Automatic annotation (TrEMBL):
Residues 132-301 form the Glycosyltransferase 2-like domain. It is found in: Cell membrane. The chain crosses the membrane at residues 52-70, 90-111, 391-415, 421-440, 452-472. Keywords: Cell membrane, Glycosyltransferase, Membrane, Transferase, Transmembrane, Transmembrane helix. The keyword Membrane applies. Belongs to the NodC/HAS family. It comes from Antarcticibacterium arcticum. GO terms for molecular function: hyaluronan synthase activity. Pfam families: Glycos_transf_2 (PF00535). Its main location: membrane. It comes from the Bacteria. This is N-acetylglucosaminyltransferase. SUPFAM superfamilies: Nucleotide-diphospho-sugar transferases. InterPro entries: Glyco_trans_2-like, Nucleotide-diphossugar_trans.
Length: 483
């Protein structure tokens, strides 16, 4: 029973990665991005002695924990029997089992939806809409140059593609790299400079107002798109008149450079290619990621001023602009979809200090936007079935509502039964991390899939505090990693 309860408090997988916005240059320790190996970066698996040691230690812990739980089985049974003798223990047991059943039922529901998902194939050049791509940049240096190059190299018809890059008052050489791109690419790209740093939302707002395309696409300035990404991303707008926004498929670019990106790699694939595929079947992808997202022009214009002037607890909102836009488009009755065949590769923080700041920013935005979504999700906000959307939202709330009780329980168990608690937690990780591991192994690389187990341990014992902390500080402003 302890293992079941700990699983609820250590939701280490992709549902936590609601990808509110992608990391910036200041969240990275590596300043280089290039297009070499973009398509193959998920197939190669280069292991050093350090990598082997980490994975070996991971499985030694997990297997040792499983054996410990086996040895402690009499103690576990005695503990559960003692609980059943008290009202409080009985309530705790019932609540724990109920939450576990809810989570397992939700996972089964998502799996059923996943098997129904199919990405939309690219439409012909003649059918493709006019498209405005907006690239906001702040202190990205050479990364923005690589991003613009990858966009121009897209197989999208040049006469239908407007490319706008906006420097948001960078303090480094970002503007020089944008000028270099302009000099080389000529009329293919237009560059603009904000008078001072105003935030990503302001840069996007300027881009939306400058854009002339029937579809807007936003791409972060530390991201690389593949040749067919843009045409795949916008095709659902042609095939489905109810489609108001499309989320791209975000992958980790620097997954071979450091341990943290390598561990996060499997979770990102599971988050997008499993979770968002299922959400797409419902037409209710909860977040269109900043790294790559497409929006129908009129859907954006219908809510642009509300989005630009959004507040939370009386203060202007300066984070979570992509989740906010997604909510406002869903509220209009549009569907939000996911295109698995629209790939973008983006950098991920390589240090713990940057990672926890990024996760805190994401979680604060999730708290705010879950509140916003709750205001319309249980109303007739669109035609057709709305139950799936509501189930997705309820699952989001379940994770937040249970955050504080489960952390309290975790500390109580850690003090009262430290060996049993740690062993049960590690056994839970071994069991429940196997799904994303199997998913990644089947699609990409079996050896790389093992990193999800290391990441689960890392998250459970190193990042468990993110959600409760973000809930307690949801009203705080700031990007956290931008000076």
């Amino acid at each position: 029973m302890i293992a079941e309860q700990i699983k609820l408090s250590s939701s280490v997988t992709a549902e936590k990665l609601n990808f509110v916005d992608t990391p910036t240059q200041e969240e990275l320790t590596s300043g280089k991005t290039d297009q070499e190996g973009v398509s193959g970066s998920y197939k190669k698996a280069i292991f050093t002695k350090r990598h082997v040691s980490i994975l070996a230690g991971t499985f030694a812990l997990l297997i040792g924990a499983a054996y410990s739980v086996y040895l402690l089985q009499p103690q576990i049974e005695e503990m559960n029997m003692n609980r059943m003798d008290t009202l409080g223990g009985m309530i705790l047991l019932i609540v724990g089992i109920s939450l576990l059943l809810f989570r397992l039922g939700f996972l089964a529901y998502i799996a059923k939806l996943f098997f129904r998902y199919k990405p939309v194939a690219s439409v012909s050049n003649e059918e493709l809409p006019t498209c405005t791509v907006i690239v906001p940049a702040y202190n990205e240096g050479k990364l923005v140059y690589s991003t613009l190059q990858s966009l121009v190299n897209s197989s999208y018809p040049a006469e239908k593609l407007q490319l706008i890059a906006i420097d948001d008052g960078s303090k480094d050489d970002t503007w020089e790299w944008m000028q270099k791109a302009k000099k080389e690419l000529g009329d293919r790209v237009s560059i603009y400079q904000q008078p001072h740093n105003q935030g990503k939302r302001h840069a996007l707002y300027r881009g939306f107002n400058l854009g002339t395309g029937d579809v807007f696409v936003t791409v972060d300035s530390d991201s690389i798109v593949e040749e067919d990404t843009l045409r795949n991303l916008v095709s659902p707008f042609i095939t489905n008149e109810n489609c108001g926004a499309v989320a791209g498929n975000v992958r980790v670019l620097n997954n071979q450079k450091a341990i943290i990106p390598r561990m996060l790699n499997v979770s990102f694939v599971f988050s997008f290619e499993f979770i968002r595929s299922a959400q797409s079947v419902l037409g209710s992808v909860l977040c269109t990621p900043g790294a790559l997202a497409g929006y129908r022009r009129n859907a954006v214009m219908n809510c642009l001023e509300e989005w630009m002037n959004q507040t939370f607890m009386g203060q202007p909102t300066d984070i979570g602009e992509d989740r906010a836009m997604t909510n406002m488009i869903l509220k209009q009755g549009f569907h939000v979809m996911f295109q698995r065949n629209a790939y973008v590769l983006t950098n991920i923080p390589e240090k713990y200090s940057s990672l926890h700041k990024m996760f805190t920013r994401w979680e604060r935005s999730n708290v705010r936007e879950n509140l916003m979504m709750s205001k319309f999700a249980f109303k007739p906000f669109r035609e057709g079935s709305r139950s799936g959307t509501r189930i997705l939202l309820l699952n989001q709330w379940m994770g937040m509502i249970t955050a504080y009780p489960l952390i309290l329980m975790m500390f109580i168990l850690l003090i009262a039964h430290p060996v049993l608690f740690i062993s049960s937690t590690l056994l839970s990780i071994l069991i429940f991390s196997s799904l994303p591991a199997f998913f990644y192994a089947k699609k990409y690389n079996i050896t790389e899939a093992f990193w999800i187990y290391s990441y689960s341990i890392f998250y459970t014992f190193g990042l468990f505090w993110i959600t409760p902390y973000a809930m307690a500080t949801a009203s705080r402003r700031g990007w956290l990693t931008r000076g």
